[in-house]
């Protein structure tokens, strides 16, 4: 047994630097560059035509790009991601803040610099979703305050994307790659950096199962369809699949071996997702529809478990000692 | 063969003091429990530079330990349900005493010694309804139980002796739990409270959190002038981003310490430890779930964050704070940032307990 433990430890040690560098250069950094490109395109589109119908396609493209790296909550993304995707919004901050800004025509809505300091609930993809899809907001016309606000919001999103991309490329990437070197107080060894990225894979899948799917499912007696993520735009199921695929791809980038069970689990997840009748999960009050969403949830968890088996176990990585244990 | 206990008894009979001070175990400043790579548990004494003064085995994972102020003895509480506590000799890990709470009581978190080391106060709850009690044990008489009084709240978790040495401050977590499986029974109606009592248990002051009644008050930090900091754990709906730290001074209103919304969300509604900085000018909380530490000024203003996976243990240090984590890291945290002091092949448990604090 001790021999096995030593083998695991040395596997982790030899693998740590290579796997993390692969994940950074082939997955994470290109993902942030892609999000910058897509959100810049959205801002440019808003400059040409600010109305909601014109912006839905580029907004969706930006959201698709975000899912590649959105759940990697390390370094600049630890708090920076929350002003890109402020969700769940348990206290209803987003509609409250948007209503207040619009009814008062607050100057920050026309001022990119000032807008960076408004509540994070009024920034990012979900605030934009309400402007583009919610009947309470989406009817704004060209030249109105709402139009200017959307232009500011998209420009702010592009600026956030650029800041995240450079924060990763020119800053945090070095923290990860210098794990274990003197003066690195974030990662005291290469294995710690590997563990940190691996943990993002698992927590993304946990968030998808427990929150993206668990929140609208609620309880059998009381499903909560409007607690689904991005239900207004009908992206709820799409986000589940894209986020799961991104987590799976990051896991594969971390490993330099085949992960057949993981790939099979992803395939099965896509198969059961195809049977969901409403991609916004608005029909979960119907027991049959609910069951189909529950099956998706089970398959997200199965993907999580497959990655634990095929990546975490061989690397000897286990969940945090304190974070898993309340006191 | 002379047993250790008989040997101690003979020393007592001879009039010599058997008490061994902390200097005899390498003069540590902190106690820290940990899990070792082989799955066993230990209690270590750490110095301010992060070096290990001693390490002794523990029979099981403990809750927080309490350090005797002068003798090299630590009390480790069994994890929930708290059916026993062990007094451990820090020279060799020998279990000197096993404390068992009365039949309808459970240890429920921390304990603290009186400043002279003669009494041990333990936080307990009544098994049937989680009503809080403080147990009193005579540390000069083989830790005999000598009394108890109410904590004036439900589910207490931590307590400290105030600097006046005449007052106890108690964190009543507010959570009622099932006696067998520890299921939380009253999340919708819980009422955590901060309570001050006289040493005979008389209630002197009680504060609650009407705005955030689902914020369980768990851990306490104390400054020399009587300023109390308390760390909280959110039991309500996720994503509400409540403040996780508050400050209180006797007779005054609570001061909630709020971080910017994004930082607050990143803490994941959970603070595991709280401590004042060495100079007392600021206070910090840790969140192992968020992998973050948040610093606040003595008036409650947010000062900044430090990111470190599984960070939890936290204590005052001459240079700021000492922090420990489940990856084995021991860090010095100062306003300039974090400096690793060491990395042990051990997963440090929830708390760093100051000795002679």
Key structural traits:
heterodimer, A: 327 residues, mainly alpha, A middle domain of Talin 1, Four Helix Bundle (Hemerythrin (Met), subunit A), 2 domains, 11 helices, globular, disordered N terminus, B: 357 residues, mainly beta, Methylamine Dehydrogenase, Chain H, four-stranded antiparallel β-sheet, 2 helices
Explain briefly what this protein structure is:
Chain A is mostly helical and 327 residues long. Chain A is built from eleven helices and no strands. In chain A, helix 8 packs antiparallel against helix 9 and helix 9 (236-254) runs antiparallel to helix 10 (260-273).
Describe the protein's architecture and organization.
The complex is a heterodimer of chains A (327) and B (357). Chain A has 327 residues and is mostly helical. Chain A has helices spanning 2-48, 52-67, 77-80, 93-103, 112-115, 124-133, 145-177, 190-217, 236-254, 260-273, 287-315. Chain A folds into 2 domains: 15-177, A middle domain of Talin 1 (Up-down Bundle), CATH 1.20.1420.20; 190-315, Up-down Bundle (Four Helix Bundle (Hemerythrin (Met), subunit A)). In chain A, helix 9 packs antiparallel against helix 10 (260-273). The longest helix of chain A has 47 residues, at 2-48. Chain A starts with a helix and ends in a 12-residue tail after the last helix. Chain B has 357 residues and is mainly β. Chain B has a single domain, classed as YVTN repeat-like/Quinoprotein amine dehydrogenase (Methylamine Dehydrogenase, Chain H, 7 Propeller). The interface between A and B is large, with 34 and 47 residues.
């Amino acid at each position: 047994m001790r021999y096995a433990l030593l083998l695991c430890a040395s596997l982790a040690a030899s693998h740590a630097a290579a796997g993390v560098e692969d994940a950074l250069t082939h997955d994470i950094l290109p993902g942030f560059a892609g999000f910058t490109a897509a959100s810049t395109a959205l801002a440019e589109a808003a400059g040409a035509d600010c109305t909601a119908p014109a912006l839905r396609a580029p907004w969706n493209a930006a959201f698709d790009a975000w899912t590649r790296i959105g759940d990697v909550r390390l370094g600049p993304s630890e708090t920076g991601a929350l002003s890109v995707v402020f969700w769940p919004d348990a206290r209803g901050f987003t509609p409250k803040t948007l209503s207040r800004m619009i009814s008062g025509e607050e100057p920050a809505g026309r001022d990119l610099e000032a807008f960076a300091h408004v509540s994070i609930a009024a920034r990012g993809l979900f605030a934009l979703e309400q402007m583009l899809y919610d009947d309470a907001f989406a009817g704004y016309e060209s030249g109105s305050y709402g139009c200017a606000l959307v232009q500011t919001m998209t420009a702010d999103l592009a600026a956030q994307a650029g800041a995240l991309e450079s924060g990763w490329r020119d800053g945090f990437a070095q923290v990860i790659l210098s794990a274990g070197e003197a003066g690195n107080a974030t990662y005291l060894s290469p294995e710690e950096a590997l563990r940190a990225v691996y943990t993002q894979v698992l927590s993304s899948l946990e968030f998808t199962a427990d929150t993206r799917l668990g929140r609208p499912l609620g309880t059998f007696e009381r499903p909560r369809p409007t607690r689904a993520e991005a239900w207004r735009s009908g992206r709820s199921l799409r986000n589940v699949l894209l986020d799961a695929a991104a987590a799976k791809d990051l896991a594969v980038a971390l490993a330099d071996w085949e992960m057949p069970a993981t790939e099979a689990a992803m395939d099965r997840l896509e198969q059961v997702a195809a049977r969901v009748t409403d991609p916004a999960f608005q029909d979960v009050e119907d027991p049959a529809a609910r069951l189909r969403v529950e099956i998706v949830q089970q398959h997200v968890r199965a993907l999580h478990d497959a990655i634990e088996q095929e990546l975490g176990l061989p690397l000897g990585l286990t969940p945090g000692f304190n974070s898993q244990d309340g006191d | 063969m002379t047993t250790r206990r008989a040997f101690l008894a003979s020393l007592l009979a001879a009039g010599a003091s058997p008490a061994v001070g902390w200097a005899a175990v390498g003069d540590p400043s902190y106690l820290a429990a940990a899990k070792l790579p082989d799955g066993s548990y230990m209690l270590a004494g750490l110095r301010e530079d992060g070096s290990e003064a001693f390490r002794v085995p523990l029979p099981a994972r403990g809750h927080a330990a309490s350090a005797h102020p002068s003798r090299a003895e630590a009390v480790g509480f069994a994890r929930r349900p708290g059916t026993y506590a062990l007094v451990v000799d820090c020279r060799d890990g020998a279990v000197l005493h096993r404390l068992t709470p009365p039949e309808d009581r459970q240890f429920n978190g921390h304990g603290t010694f009186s400043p002279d080391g003669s009494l041990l106060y333990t936080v307990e709850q009544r098994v049937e309804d989680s009503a809080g009690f403080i147990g009193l044990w005579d540390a000069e008489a083989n830790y005999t139980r000598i009394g108890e009084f109410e904590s004036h709240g439900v589910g207490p978790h931590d307590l400290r002796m105030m600097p006046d040495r005449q007052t106890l401050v108690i964190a009543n977590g507010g959570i009622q739990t099932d006696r067998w499986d520890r299921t939380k029974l009253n999340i919708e109606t819980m009422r955590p409270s901060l309570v001050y009592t006289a040493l005979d248990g008389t209630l002197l002051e009680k504060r609650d959190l009407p705005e955030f009644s689902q914020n369980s008050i768990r851990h306490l930090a104390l400054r020399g002038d009587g300023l109390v900091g308390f760390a909280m754990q959110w039991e309500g709906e996720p994503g509400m981003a409540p403040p996780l730290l508050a400050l209180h001074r006797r007779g005054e209103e609570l001061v909630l310490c709020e971080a910017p919304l994004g930082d607050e969300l990143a803490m994941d509604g959970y603070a595991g430890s709280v401590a004042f900085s060495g100079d007392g000018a600021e206070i910090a909380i840790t969140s192992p779930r968020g992998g973050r530490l948040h610093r606040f000024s003595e008036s409650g203003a947010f000062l900044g964050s430090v990111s470190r996976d599984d960070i939890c243990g936290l204590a005052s240090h001459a240079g700021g704070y000492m922090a420990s984590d489940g990856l084995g890291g021991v860090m010095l945290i100062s306003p300039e940032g974090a400096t690793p002091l060491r990395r042990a092949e051990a997963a440090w448990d929830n708390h760093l307990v100051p000795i002679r604090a």
